[in-house]
Design brief:
By secondary structure, the protein is of the alpha+beta class. It contains 14 helices and 27 strands. It has a 4-stranded mixed beta sheet. The radius of gyration is 42 Å and the shape is rod-shaped. Pfam families: DNA_topoisoIV (PF00521).
Protein backbone atom coordinates (compact mmCIF):
# COMPACT_ATOMS: atom_id res chain seq x y z
CA UNK A 1 0.00 0.00 0.00
CA UNK A 2 3.02 2.30 0.48
CA UNK A 3 4.67 1.41 -2.81
CA UNK A 4 5.71 4.64 -4.52
CA UNK A 5 5.28 6.79 -1.42
CA UNK A 6 8.79 8.27 -1.98
CA UNK A 7 8.28 8.75 -5.72
CA UNK A 8 5.97 11.79 -5.61
CA UNK A 9 3.01 9.47 -6.22
CA UNK A 10 0.68 11.40 -3.89
CA UNK A 11 0.51 14.77 -2.20
CA UNK A 12 1.57 15.31 1.40
CA UNK A 13 0.06 17.59 4.04
CA UNK A 14 1.21 18.74 7.49
CA UNK A 15 0.20 16.63 10.48
CA UNK A 16 -2.17 18.07 13.08
CA UNK A 17 0.66 19.84 14.95
CA UNK A 18 2.63 20.79 11.85
CA UNK A 19 5.74 18.96 13.05
CA UNK A 20 5.74 16.41 10.22
CA UNK A 21 3.96 15.65 6.97
CA UNK A 22 1.70 12.74 6.00
CA UNK A 23 0.31 11.43 2.69
CA UNK A 24 -3.18 12.60 1.78
CA UNK A 25 -3.93 9.12 0.39
CA UNK A 26 -1.91 5.92 0.01
CA UNK A 27 -0.53 5.20 -3.46
CA UNK A 28 -0.23 1.41 -3.47
CA UNK A 29 -1.92 -0.86 -6.00
CA UNK A 30 -4.40 -2.29 -3.49
CA UNK A 31 -8.14 -1.45 -3.13
CA UNK A 32 -7.84 -1.10 0.64
CA UNK A 33 -11.16 0.57 1.44
CA UNK A 34 -13.07 -2.24 -0.30
CA UNK A 35 -10.75 -5.12 0.58
CA UNK A 36 -10.60 -4.39 4.31
CA UNK A 37 -13.77 -2.36 4.76
CA UNK A 38 -14.17 0.67 6.96
CA UNK A 39 -16.53 2.09 9.55
CA UNK A 40 -16.75 5.36 11.42
CA UNK A 41 -18.96 8.17 12.64
CA UNK A 42 -18.46 11.86 11.98
CA UNK A 43 -20.60 14.93 12.61
CA UNK A 44 -23.94 14.26 10.93
CA UNK A 45 -22.74 11.30 8.89
CA UNK A 46 -21.45 7.75 9.18
CA UNK A 47 -19.85 5.11 7.00
CA UNK A 48 -19.97 1.33 7.19
CA UNK A 49 -18.27 -0.51 4.34
CA UNK A 50 -17.98 -4.32 4.42
CA UNK A 51 -14.79 -6.09 3.28
CA UNK A 52 -14.86 -7.68 -0.17
CA UNK A 53 -12.75 -10.42 -1.74
CA UNK A 54 -9.54 -9.04 -3.32
CA UNK A 55 -9.52 -11.51 -6.21
CA UNK A 56 -13.12 -10.62 -7.07
CA UNK A 57 -12.30 -6.90 -6.85
CA UNK A 58 -9.42 -7.45 -9.29
CA UNK A 59 -11.65 -9.37 -11.70
CA UNK A 60 -14.33 -6.68 -11.49
CA UNK A 61 -11.76 -3.92 -12.08
CA UNK A 62 -10.40 -5.67 -15.17
CA UNK A 63 -13.94 -6.24 -16.45
CA UNK A 64 -14.77 -2.58 -15.79
CA UNK A 65 -11.77 -1.50 -17.88
CA UNK A 66 -12.94 -3.72 -20.74
CA UNK A 67 -16.65 -2.91 -20.61
CA UNK A 68 -19.09 -0.54 -18.88
CA UNK A 69 -20.55 -2.96 -16.34
CA UNK A 70 -23.73 -2.19 -14.39
CA UNK A 71 -24.52 -3.35 -10.84
CA UNK A 72 -25.99 -6.62 -12.14
CA UNK A 73 -22.78 -7.36 -14.03
CA UNK A 74 -20.66 -6.52 -10.99
CA UNK A 75 -22.78 -8.85 -8.84
CA UNK A 76 -21.87 -11.77 -11.12
CA UNK A 77 -18.19 -11.19 -10.25
CA UNK A 78 -18.34 -9.70 -6.74
CA UNK A 79 -20.85 -12.13 -5.28
CA UNK A 80 -21.10 -10.30 -1.97
CA UNK A 81 -18.99 -9.17 0.98
CA UNK A 82 -16.22 -11.50 2.15
CA UNK A 83 -15.88 -11.30 5.92
CA UNK A 84 -12.72 -12.55 7.65
CA UNK A 85 -14.76 -14.64 10.11
CA UNK A 86 -16.46 -16.57 7.30
CA UNK A 87 -20.11 -17.45 7.79
CA UNK A 88 -22.80 -17.74 5.13
CA UNK A 89 -24.36 -14.87 3.19
CA UNK A 90 -28.07 -15.56 2.63
CA UNK A 91 -29.20 -12.22 1.21
CA UNK A 92 -31.27 -12.50 -2.02
CA UNK A 93 -29.28 -11.56 -5.11
CA UNK A 94 -31.75 -8.81 -6.01
CA UNK A 95 -31.02 -7.09 -2.69
CA UNK A 96 -27.26 -7.38 -3.27
CA UNK A 97 -27.60 -5.78 -6.72
CA UNK A 98 -29.72 -2.99 -5.22
CA UNK A 99 -27.06 -2.36 -2.56
CA UNK A 100 -24.37 -2.17 -5.26
CA UNK A 101 -26.51 0.30 -7.23
CA UNK A 102 -27.22 2.67 -4.35
CA UNK A 103 -24.27 2.20 -2.00
CA UNK A 104 -26.73 1.35 0.76
CA UNK A 105 -28.18 -1.98 1.82
CA UNK A 106 -28.10 -4.80 4.32
CA UNK A 107 -26.41 -8.19 4.10
CA UNK A 108 -27.89 -11.04 6.13
CA UNK A 109 -25.26 -13.33 7.62
CA UNK A 110 -25.58 -16.70 9.34
CA UNK A 111 -23.18 -18.89 11.26
CA UNK A 112 -21.82 -21.95 9.48
CA UNK A 113 -22.88 -25.23 11.10
CA UNK A 114 -22.89 -28.95 10.49
CA UNK A 115 -24.54 -31.99 12.00
CA UNK A 116 -22.25 -34.53 13.67
CA UNK A 117 -23.89 -37.93 14.19
CA UNK A 118 -23.12 -39.85 17.37
CA UNK A 119 -23.93 -43.32 18.69
CA UNK A 120 -27.44 -44.60 19.50
CA UNK A 121 -29.20 -42.29 17.09
CA UNK A 122 -28.06 -39.09 18.79
CA UNK A 123 -26.24 -36.17 17.24
CA UNK A 124 -24.78 -32.76 18.01
CA UNK A 125 -24.52 -29.54 16.04
CA UNK A 126 -21.08 -27.99 15.49
CA UNK A 127 -20.81 -24.27 14.76
CA UNK A 128 -17.50 -23.58 13.00
CA UNK A 129 -17.93 -19.97 11.85
CA UNK A 130 -19.89 -17.07 13.32
CA UNK A 131 -21.02 -13.80 11.72
CA UNK A 132 -18.67 -10.83 11.44
CA UNK A 133 -18.17 -8.73 14.60
CA UNK A 134 -20.10 -11.18 16.82
CA UNK A 135 -18.37 -11.82 20.14
CA UNK A 136 -18.16 -15.57 20.72
CA UNK A 137 -18.29 -15.45 24.53
CA UNK A 138 -21.38 -13.22 24.52
CA UNK A 139 -23.04 -15.47 21.94
CA UNK A 140 -22.55 -18.56 24.12
CA UNK A 141 -23.85 -16.67 27.17
CA UNK A 142 -27.01 -15.75 25.23
CA UNK A 143 -27.65 -19.34 24.16
CA UNK A 144 -27.13 -20.52 27.75
CA UNK A 145 -29.60 -17.89 28.99
CA UNK A 146 -32.23 -19.13 26.52
CA UNK A 147 -31.70 -22.72 27.69
CA UNK A 148 -32.04 -21.76 31.36
CA UNK A 149 -35.18 -19.74 30.61
CA UNK A 150 -36.58 -22.75 28.69
CA UNK A 151 -37.14 -20.57 25.63
CA UNK A 152 -35.40 -23.09 23.36
CA UNK A 153 -36.86 -26.38 24.63
CA UNK A 154 -35.31 -28.34 21.76
CA UNK A 155 -31.79 -27.55 23.04
CA UNK A 156 -30.29 -29.29 26.07
CA UNK A 157 -26.83 -27.71 26.39
CA UNK A 158 -24.12 -25.61 24.73
CA UNK A 159 -20.35 -26.17 25.03
CA UNK A 160 -17.36 -24.15 23.84
CA UNK A 161 -14.67 -26.49 22.50
CA UNK A 162 -12.84 -23.80 20.54
CA UNK A 163 -9.05 -23.75 20.29
CA UNK A 164 -7.49 -21.84 17.38
CA UNK A 165 -10.63 -22.42 15.35
CA UNK A 166 -14.21 -21.89 16.48
CA UNK A 167 -16.04 -25.00 17.66
CA UNK A 168 -19.30 -24.38 19.51
CA UNK A 169 -21.18 -27.59 20.30
CA UNK A 170 -24.98 -27.60 20.59
CA UNK A 171 -26.56 -30.66 22.20
CA UNK A 172 -30.26 -31.22 21.35
CA UNK A 173 -32.77 -32.74 23.77
CA UNK A 174 -32.92 -35.96 21.76
CA UNK A 175 -32.02 -37.48 18.43
CA UNK A 176 -35.58 -36.87 17.21
CA UNK A 177 -35.15 -33.10 17.24
CA UNK A 178 -35.15 -31.59 13.74
CA UNK A 179 -31.70 -29.96 13.40
CA UNK A 180 -32.88 -27.43 10.80
CA UNK A 181 -35.81 -26.39 13.00
CA UNK A 182 -33.55 -26.05 16.04
CA UNK A 183 -31.08 -23.87 14.14
CA UNK A 184 -33.91 -21.76 12.71
CA UNK A 185 -35.08 -21.07 16.27
CA UNK A 186 -31.53 -20.10 17.30
CA UNK A 187 -31.05 -17.90 14.23
CA UNK A 188 -34.16 -15.95 15.23
CA UNK A 189 -33.19 -15.67 18.90
CA UNK A 190 -29.41 -15.07 18.87
CA UNK A 191 -26.57 -13.44 16.94
CA UNK A 192 -26.01 -16.65 15.01
CA UNK A 193 -27.79 -14.55 12.40
CA UNK A 194 -26.99 -10.85 11.97
CA UNK A 195 -27.37 -8.10 9.41
CA UNK A 196 -24.48 -5.95 8.21
CA UNK A 197 -25.85 -2.56 7.18
CA UNK A 198 -23.74 -1.12 4.38
CA UNK A 199 -23.43 2.65 3.99
CA UNK A 200 -20.72 3.37 1.42
CA UNK A 201 -20.19 6.98 2.45
CA UNK A 202 -16.76 8.05 1.18
CA UNK A 203 -14.86 11.25 0.38
CA UNK A 204 -15.15 11.83 -3.35
CA UNK A 205 -11.81 13.16 -4.64
CA UNK A 206 -10.73 13.25 -1.01
CA UNK A 207 -12.98 16.25 -0.34
CA UNK A 208 -16.75 15.75 -0.67
CA UNK A 209 -18.53 13.08 1.40
CA UNK A 210 -21.03 11.11 -0.68
CA UNK A 211 -22.72 7.71 -0.64
CA UNK A 212 -21.32 6.11 -3.79
CA UNK A 213 -22.38 2.97 -5.67
CA UNK A 214 -19.85 0.14 -5.78
CA UNK A 215 -19.08 0.76 -9.45
CA UNK A 216 -18.16 4.41 -8.78
CA UNK A 217 -15.91 3.44 -5.86
CA UNK A 218 -14.07 0.94 -8.07
CA UNK A 219 -13.78 3.50 -10.86
CA UNK A 220 -12.45 6.09 -8.39
CA UNK A 221 -9.76 3.61 -7.31
CA UNK A 222 -8.81 2.95 -10.95
CA UNK A 223 -8.66 6.69 -11.69
CA UNK A 224 -6.46 7.14 -8.61
CA UNK A 225 -4.12 4.42 -9.88
CA UNK A 226 -3.85 6.21 -13.21
CA UNK A 227 -2.84 9.43 -11.44
CA UNK A 228 -0.33 7.53 -9.29
CA UNK A 229 1.12 5.80 -12.35
CA UNK A 230 1.61 9.09 -14.23
CA UNK A 231 3.16 10.85 -11.21
CA UNK A 232 5.53 7.94 -10.50
CA UNK A 233 6.45 7.79 -14.19
CA UNK A 234 7.19 11.52 -14.24
CA UNK A 235 9.26 11.17 -11.08
CA UNK A 236 11.20 8.27 -12.60
CA UNK A 237 11.64 10.15 -15.88
CA UNK A 238 13.22 13.07 -14.03
CA UNK A 239 15.65 10.69 -12.32
CA UNK A 240 16.47 8.99 -15.62
CA UNK A 241 17.05 12.29 -17.40
CA UNK A 242 19.30 13.47 -14.58
CA UNK A 243 21.34 10.27 -14.72
CA UNK A 244 21.58 10.42 -18.52
CA UNK A 245 22.89 13.95 -18.24
CA UNK A 246 25.60 12.78 -15.84
CA UNK A 247 26.46 9.76 -18.00
CA UNK A 248 26.82 11.90 -21.10
CA UNK A 249 29.30 14.05 -19.16
CA UNK A 250 31.26 10.94 -18.13
CA UNK A 251 31.34 9.67 -21.71
CA UNK A 252 32.68 13.04 -22.79
CA UNK A 253 35.58 12.54 -20.36
CA UNK A 254 36.48 9.19 -21.92
CA UNK A 255 36.49 10.71 -25.40
CA UNK A 256 38.75 13.61 -24.28
CA UNK A 257 40.48 12.15 -21.26
CA UNK A 258 43.89 13.83 -21.77
CA UNK A 259 42.43 17.28 -22.28
CA UNK A 260 40.09 16.87 -19.28
CA UNK A 261 42.99 15.85 -17.02
CA UNK A 262 45.06 18.80 -18.22
CA UNK A 263 42.24 21.27 -17.47
CA UNK A 264 41.71 19.81 -14.00
CA UNK A 265 45.48 20.01 -13.23
CA UNK A 266 46.23 23.46 -14.63
CA UNK A 267 43.06 25.58 -14.59
CA UNK A 268 42.36 27.89 -11.67
CA UNK A 269 38.64 27.29 -12.15
CA UNK A 270 38.40 23.82 -13.68
CA UNK A 271 34.60 23.67 -13.48
CA UNK A 272 34.13 26.77 -15.63
CA UNK A 273 36.87 25.61 -18.02
CA UNK A 274 35.22 22.19 -18.46
CA UNK A 275 31.83 23.77 -19.14
CA UNK A 276 33.40 26.13 -21.69
CA UNK A 277 35.58 23.54 -23.41
CA UNK A 278 33.05 20.73 -23.79
CA UNK A 279 29.73 22.63 -23.53
CA UNK A 280 28.81 20.76 -20.35
CA UNK A 281 26.14 21.60 -17.83
CA UNK A 282 26.99 22.46 -14.25
CA UNK A 283 25.64 19.07 -13.15
CA UNK A 284 27.94 17.29 -15.64
CA UNK A 285 30.97 19.34 -14.70
CA UNK A 286 30.40 18.76 -10.99
CA UNK A 287 30.03 14.99 -11.55
CA UNK A 288 33.29 14.89 -13.57
CA UNK A 289 35.21 16.71 -10.86
CA UNK A 290 33.86 14.23 -8.28
CA UNK A 291 34.88 11.25 -10.39
CA UNK A 292 37.62 8.97 -9.03
CA UNK A 293 40.66 8.14 -11.15
CA UNK A 294 40.00 4.40 -10.81
CA UNK A 295 36.78 4.93 -12.78
CA UNK A 296 38.76 6.01 -15.83
CA UNK A 297 39.46 2.46 -17.06
CA UNK A 298 38.15 0.81 -20.21
CA UNK A 299 35.78 -1.55 -18.35
CA UNK A 300 34.13 1.35 -16.58
CA UNK A 301 33.66 3.10 -19.91
CA UNK A 302 31.82 0.07 -21.30
CA UNK A 303 29.62 -0.15 -18.22
CA UNK A 304 28.71 3.52 -18.45
CA UNK A 305 27.89 3.17 -22.14
CA UNK A 306 25.68 0.15 -21.39
CA UNK A 307 23.89 2.02 -18.62
CA UNK A 308 23.38 4.97 -20.95
CA UNK A 309 21.80 2.75 -23.60
CA UNK A 310 19.43 1.10 -21.09
CA UNK A 311 18.36 4.39 -19.56
CA UNK A 312 17.80 5.86 -23.01
CA UNK A 313 15.37 3.05 -23.78
CA UNK A 314 13.66 3.54 -20.41
CA UNK A 315 13.39 7.28 -21.09
CA UNK A 316 11.68 6.64 -24.41
CA UNK A 317 9.23 4.17 -22.82
CA UNK A 318 8.41 6.55 -19.97
CA UNK A 319 7.79 9.41 -22.37
CA UNK A 320 5.46 7.22 -24.45
CA UNK A 321 3.65 6.04 -21.29
CA UNK A 322 3.10 9.58 -20.00
CA UNK A 323 1.85 10.74 -23.39
CA UNK A 324 -0.55 7.83 -24.03
CA UNK A 325 -3.63 7.12 -21.87
CA UNK A 326 -4.09 3.76 -23.61
CA UNK A 327 -0.57 2.70 -22.53
CA UNK A 328 -1.36 3.82 -18.99
CA UNK A 329 -4.47 1.60 -18.75
CA UNK A 330 -2.54 -1.31 -20.27
CA UNK A 331 0.08 -0.91 -17.55
CA UNK A 332 -2.62 -0.71 -14.84
CA UNK A 333 -4.17 -3.94 -16.16
CA UNK A 334 -0.78 -5.67 -15.85
CA UNK A 335 -0.42 -4.42 -12.27
CA UNK A 336 -3.93 -5.64 -11.38
CA UNK A 337 -3.14 -9.07 -12.85
CA UNK A 338 0.00 -9.26 -10.69
CA UNK A 339 -2.15 -8.38 -7.66
CA UNK A 340 -4.65 -11.08 -8.70
CA UNK A 341 -1.89 -13.69 -8.82
CA UNK A 342 -0.87 -12.79 -5.27
CA UNK A 343 -4.44 -12.77 -3.91
CA UNK A 344 -6.07 -15.26 -6.28
CA UNK A 345 -8.97 -17.52 -5.20
CA UNK A 346 -6.62 -20.50 -4.85
CA UNK A 347 -4.19 -18.72 -2.53
CA UNK A 348 -4.41 -18.79 1.26
CA UNK A 349 -4.75 -15.01 1.43
CA UNK A 350 -7.19 -14.65 -1.43
CA UNK A 351 -9.61 -17.55 -1.01
CA UNK A 352 -13.21 -16.58 -0.26
CA UNK A 353 -14.08 -17.06 3.39
CA UNK A 354 -17.76 -16.14 3.36
CA UNK A 355 -19.87 -18.75 1.61
CA UNK A 356 -22.65 -17.57 -0.68
CA UNK A 357 -25.76 -19.45 0.42
CA UNK A 358 -29.24 -19.68 -1.03
CA UNK A 359 -31.81 -17.04 -0.18
CA UNK A 360 -34.09 -18.20 2.61
CA UNK A 361 -37.29 -20.00 1.75
CA UNK A 362 -40.48 -19.09 3.66
CA UNK A 363 -40.41 -20.63 7.12
CA UNK A 364 -43.38 -22.53 8.56
CA UNK A 365 -43.98 -20.11 11.43
CA UNK A 366 -46.54 -22.40 13.03
CA UNK A 367 -44.06 -25.27 13.11
CA UNK A 368 -41.34 -22.94 14.41
CA UNK A 369 -43.56 -21.55 17.16
CA UNK A 370 -44.43 -25.09 18.15
CA UNK A 371 -40.75 -25.98 18.30
CA UNK A 372 -40.17 -23.12 20.73
CA UNK A 373 -42.64 -24.67 23.20
CA UNK A 374 -41.68 -27.54 25.44
CA UNK A 375 -44.04 -30.37 24.53
CA UNK A 376 -45.82 -31.75 27.60
CA UNK A 377 -49.17 -33.53 28.10
CA UNK A 378 -51.91 -31.44 29.72
CA UNK A 379 -55.60 -31.77 30.52
CA UNK A 380 -57.60 -28.63 29.72
CA UNK A 381 -60.55 -28.00 32.02
CA UNK A 382 -63.20 -25.32 31.48
CA UNK A 383 -65.90 -24.84 34.11
CA UNK A 384 -69.55 -23.96 33.57
CA UNK A 385 -68.86 -20.36 34.60
CA UNK A 386 -66.00 -20.00 32.13
CA UNK A 387 -62.90 -20.58 34.30
CA UNK A 388 -60.12 -22.39 32.44
CA UNK A 389 -56.89 -24.10 33.50
CA UNK A 390 -54.44 -26.77 32.34
CA UNK A 391 -53.33 -29.61 34.60
CA UNK A 392 -50.14 -31.52 33.81
CA UNK A 393 -50.59 -35.02 32.43
CA UNK A 394 -53.46 -37.06 31.04
CA UNK A 395 -55.97 -39.40 32.69
CA UNK A 396 -56.78 -36.80 35.33
CA UNK A 397 -59.44 -37.82 37.88
CA UNK A 398 -62.15 -35.24 37.21
CA UNK A 399 -63.84 -35.95 40.54
CA UNK A 400 -60.84 -34.63 42.45
CA UNK A 401 -60.83 -31.24 40.72
CA UNK A 402 -61.93 -28.30 42.86
CA UNK A 403 -64.12 -25.47 41.58
CA UNK A 404 -65.45 -22.22 42.97
CA UNK A 405 -68.66 -22.38 44.98
CA UNK A 406 -71.59 -22.84 42.66
CA UNK A 407 -69.35 -23.82 39.74
CA UNK A 408 -68.82 -27.24 38.17
CA UNK A 409 -66.99 -29.05 35.38
CA UNK A 410 -68.26 -28.34 31.89
CA UNK A 411 -65.62 -29.19 29.29
CA UNK A 412 -62.57 -31.46 29.74
CA UNK A 413 -60.07 -32.23 27.00
CA UNK A 414 -56.64 -33.88 26.80
CA UNK A 415 -54.02 -31.98 24.81
CA UNK A 416 -50.33 -31.05 24.56
CA UNK A 417 -48.70 -27.73 25.42
CA UNK A 418 -47.92 -27.33 21.71
CA UNK A 419 -51.60 -27.62 20.72
CA UNK A 420 -54.06 -24.82 20.06
CA UNK A 421 -57.41 -24.80 21.82
CA UNK A 422 -60.50 -23.50 19.99
CA UNK A 423 -63.29 -21.97 22.08
CA UNK A 424 -66.72 -21.46 20.46
CA UNK A 425 -68.96 -18.78 21.95
CA UNK A 426 -72.72 -18.37 21.77
CA UNK A 427 -72.04 -15.17 19.81
CA UNK A 428 -70.86 -17.31 16.87
CA UNK A 429 -67.18 -16.42 17.31
CA UNK A 430 -64.20 -18.75 17.62
CA UNK A 431 -61.34 -17.84 19.95
CA UNK A 432 -57.87 -19.41 19.98
CA UNK A 433 -55.67 -20.12 23.00
CA UNK A 434 -52.22 -21.74 22.97
CA UNK A 435 -51.81 -24.76 25.21
CA UNK A 436 -48.70 -23.15 26.71
CA UNK A 437 -50.65 -19.97 27.52
CA UNK A 438 -53.22 -21.63 29.76
CA UNK A 439 -52.98 -21.03 33.53
CA UNK A 440 -51.55 -23.90 35.56
CA UNK A 441 -53.76 -26.43 37.31
CA UNK A 442 -53.15 -24.96 40.74
CA UNK A 443 -56.17 -23.09 42.08
CA UNK A 444 -59.29 -22.41 40.06
CA UNK A 445 -57.57 -21.12 36.92
CA UNK A 446 -58.54 -17.85 35.22
CA UNK A 447 -61.72 -16.57 33.54
CA UNK A 448 -61.66 -17.12 29.79
CA UNK A 449 -63.00 -13.58 29.35
CA UNK A 450 -59.70 -12.18 30.68
CA UNK A 451 -57.77 -14.10 28.03
CA UNK A 452 -59.97 -13.51 24.97
CA UNK A 453 -62.59 -10.96 23.96
CA UNK A 454 -65.64 -13.08 24.86
CA UNK A 455 -68.49 -10.67 25.79
CA UNK A 456 -70.14 -10.95 29.22
CA UNK A 457 -73.50 -11.82 27.65
CA UNK A 458 -72.03 -14.74 25.65
CA UNK A 459 -71.49 -18.28 26.93
CA UNK A 460 -68.90 -20.92 26.04
CA UNK A 461 -70.62 -23.51 23.86
CA UNK A 462 -67.76 -25.90 23.16
CA UNK A 463 -63.99 -26.39 23.26
CA UNK A 464 -62.08 -28.27 20.56
CA UNK A 465 -58.48 -29.28 19.88
CA UNK A 466 -57.23 -27.61 16.70
CA UNK A 467 -56.51 -29.90 13.75
CA UNK A 468 -55.80 -28.20 10.44
CA UNK A 469 -57.16 -31.19 8.51
CA UNK A 470 -60.41 -31.56 10.48
CA UNK A 471 -63.89 -30.19 9.81
CA UNK A 472 -66.73 -29.21 12.17
CA UNK A 473 -70.43 -28.63 11.96
CA UNK A 474 -71.67 -25.44 13.62
CA UNK A 475 -75.32 -24.44 14.11
CA UNK A 476 -77.54 -21.85 15.80
CA UNK A 477 -80.68 -22.47 17.84
CA UNK A 478 -82.84 -21.28 14.93
CA UNK A 479 -81.79 -24.34 12.93
CA UNK A 480 -79.18 -22.72 10.64
CA UNK A 481 -75.87 -24.51 10.31
CA UNK A 482 -73.01 -25.48 8.00
CA UNK A 483 -69.70 -27.36 7.81
CA UNK A 484 -66.49 -25.40 8.34
CA UNK A 485 -62.82 -26.32 8.19
CA UNK A 486 -60.90 -25.91 11.44
CA UNK A 487 -58.14 -24.02 9.64
CA UNK A 488 -60.73 -21.41 8.66
CA UNK A 489 -61.80 -20.70 12.25
CA UNK A 490 -58.32 -20.20 13.72
CA UNK A 491 -58.22 -16.69 15.18
CA UNK A 492 -55.05 -14.59 15.14
CA UNK A 493 -56.31 -11.92 17.53
CA UNK A 494 -57.80 -11.77 20.99
CA UNK A 495 -61.15 -10.65 19.54
CA UNK A 496 -61.64 -13.99 17.82
CA UNK A 497 -63.10 -14.77 14.41
CA UNK A 498 -66.79 -14.46 13.48
CA UNK A 499 -67.92 -17.71 11.84
CA UNK A 500 -71.66 -18.04 12.50
CA UNK A 501 -73.72 -14.87 12.21
CA UNK A 502 -76.35 -14.52 14.96
CA UNK A 503 -78.54 -11.60 15.98
CA UNK A 504 -81.31 -10.77 18.39
CA UNK A 505 -82.26 -13.69 20.60
CA UNK A 506 -80.67 -16.23 18.25
CA UNK A 507 -77.52 -17.89 19.67
CA UNK A 508 -74.97 -20.40 18.49
CA UNK A 509 -75.68 -23.77 20.09
CA UNK A 510 -73.67 -26.49 18.37
CA UNK A 511 -70.02 -27.17 17.50
CA UNK A 512 -69.11 -30.78 16.76
CA UNK A 513 -66.12 -32.24 14.89
CA UNK A 514 -66.89 -34.56 12.00
CA UNK A 515 -65.08 -37.82 12.57
CA UNK A 516 -63.52 -39.69 9.67
CA UNK A 517 -65.86 -42.21 8.06
CA UNK A 518 -69.06 -40.55 9.28
CA UNK A 519 -71.31 -39.49 6.40
CA UNK A 520 -74.75 -38.94 8.01
CA UNK A 521 -76.15 -36.65 10.68
CA UNK A 522 -79.16 -37.04 12.99
CA UNK A 523 -80.99 -33.92 14.20
CA UNK A 524 -83.72 -33.82 16.89
CA UNK A 525 -86.07 -30.87 17.23
CA UNK A 526 -87.98 -29.46 20.21
CA UNK A 527 -90.95 -31.49 18.97
CA UNK A 528 -88.95 -34.62 19.83
CA UNK A 529 -88.83 -35.68 16.21
CA UNK A 530 -85.54 -36.75 14.62
CA UNK A 531 -84.40 -36.52 11.03
CA UNK A 532 -81.36 -38.26 9.52
CA UNK A 533 -79.72 -37.08 6.30
CA UNK A 534 -76.36 -37.15 4.50
CA UNK A 535 -73.61 -34.75 5.51
CA UNK A 536 -73.14 -33.94 1.84
CA UNK A 537 -76.47 -32.08 1.96
CA UNK A 538 -75.09 -29.56 4.46
CA UNK A 539 -73.39 -26.50 2.94
Amino acid sequence: MLEGINENAVDFRPTYDGSESEPVVLPGMFPNILANGSSGIAVGMATNIPPFNVAELCEASLALLEDDLDAKGLAKIIKGPDFPTGGTLIEPKANIIKAYETGKGAFRMRAKWEREDLKRGTYQIIITEIPYQVQKSRLIEKIAELINARKIPLLDDVCDESAEDIRIVLIPKSGNVDADLLMEALFRSTDLETRFNMNMNVLENGVTPRVMPLKEVLQAWLDHQQVVLVRRSQFRLEKVLHRLEVLEGFLTVFLNIDKVIKIIRTADKPKEELIKAFKLSEIQAEAILNMRLRALNKLQELELQGEHDELSKERDELQKLIASEARQWTMIKKQIKILYEEFGPKTELGKRRTKIGKALEPVDLEQLEEAMIEKEPITVICSAKGWIKAMKGHDIDAKGIKYKDGDRASLVMEAMTTDKVLIFGSNGRFYTLGGDQLPSGRGFGEPVRLMVGLPNDADIIDMQLYDAQAKMIVAADDGRGFIVKMEDVLAQTKNGKQILNVSGKVEAKLCKPIEEGHDHIAVMGQNRKMIVFELAQIP
